[in-house]
Design a protein that fits this description.
- The protein is α+β, with helices and mostly antiparallel strands and 158 residues long.
- The chain is built from five helices and eight strands; from the N terminus they run αββββαβαβαββα.
- Strands 1-8-7-4-5-6-2-3 form an eight-stranded mixed beta sheet.
- Helix 2 runs parallel beside helix 5.
- The longest helix has 21 residues, at 57-77.
- It is globular.
């Protein structure tokens, strides 16, 4: 049983698979309020919530890598990426300047008070949560070069 649990954890599964997405409201960088459960709820659409921070190099690398494929993913798989910054009040001022240089095509939300992070029990970033029909269907923690291909393959399965 321990081996099976370990294999499931290694494969990126967690106790949150098929858990309902929490109803948490976050602001975008332009001060628009989004409820992550209700505003990202188009039927059968895949939502990739990518948790990141300005001080996290692997997070930035992951979002840059996804950007290269995003137009194709969006068209082929009906995927929307929502990048959620977990920068706190001390580092939040770095988010907008970074976004100007990156021109990521994602909706960028700010989890300054860590409300969504806590609700999903996220310990560290980068952390990816895939949601379909308001349910968490896949989670993955960490990033290494090429992991976006694994994410793409997982999204195709869903």
């Amino acid at each position: 049983m321990k081996k099976l649990l370990l294999l499931l954890l290694i494969a990126g599964f967690s106790a949150y698979a098929q858990k309902a997405m929490p109803s948490v409201s976050l602001k975008s960088v332009d001060n628009k309020v989004y409820n992550v459960k209700n505003d990202f709820a188009e039927k059968d659409k895949l939502y990739v919530f990518s948790f990141w921070a300005t001080w996290c190099a692997p997070c930035i690398n992951e979002l840059d890598a996804i950007k290269e494929h995003y137009a194709q993913w969006h068209k082929e798989l009906n995927v929307e990426v929502v990048a959620i910054s977990i920068d706190d009040s001390r580092t939040q001022k770095r988010v907008k300047p970074m976004l100007i240089g990156k021109s990521w095509p994602y909706t960028i939300l700010l989890d300054t008070n860590q409300d969504l992070r806590r609700a999903l029990a996220i310990a560290n970033v980068p952390y990816t949560v895939v949601v379909k029909n308001k349910k968490v269907v896949y989670v993955h923690n960490g990033y290494s070069q090429g992991a976006e291909k694994e994410l793409y393959n997982k999204l195709k399965e869903l």
